Fold:
Amino acid sequence: MSLHGIAPPLAWAPFIASYWHLDGDSVVDIHGGVALVFNLGDPVTVDVQGHDSLQVASPFLLGGLSRRVGFRADGDLRLFGVRFRPCGVFPFFSMPQMEFAGQCVVLDELWELKGLGVVEAMARGRGDAPDDYACRFNEFFAARRDSFLSYGRVVAMAVAVIRRECGNVTMAALAAECGVSRRHLERLFDERIGVTPKHLARMFRLSLALGHLPSSDAADVAARCGYFDQPHLIRECRCLTDYSPSQMHPSS
Structure:
């Protein structure tokens, strides 16, 4: 199995976390956004944590946060993926992300991508190097720059605050800083991200904690990241991912 990561251009960093190219069976953790995946090989079986397996031959969308996703194929398995940041995918789809949160959705079912040329462009490049796919997708992004710059100001502000505070922010304080009511903020998140702001904050905090675990004591990490204690961190990890920190990082 070979997983090749590619950084997006700086201009797209607010929308795209990374590109990746996968060659061979693998299990991937999807954190912090939606992933758009182009199948460049044989039909692939997608195993999304908590859902039935789905075999797909065309491009597909993975929605939701903190989902462990497995890819396997009987033949040639090659995938190119675009992992969006929270709210980065919203200019693509007017449908609320809550409708495909935590699921694998075949792109044929997402009518808004039809006619835009991105699927056809990626298909024509089968066999190209991973960087070539990234360049092709960058060209598509550039052609839709105006749409990307029109994403929700309030949601972008809220995500920035959550990131700044490493997830340790109350929803009342978050709504107040964004100048909207808590209910209005939750409604915007449902439409543009697919989870509540509280859930996103919990995921940011957990992601930060998991990033520290391989090199730090678990109890120290829990205190540093705002958990009451180590058992609180363990419960939160199991609640959000179905795995304990030691299962996510065997050395922790």
Q: What stands out?
A: The domain at 2-148 is CATH 2.60.120.10 (Jelly Rolls). Strands lie at 2-6, 16-23, 26-30, 35-39, 44-48, 54-56, 60-62, 67-72, 78-84, 104-106.
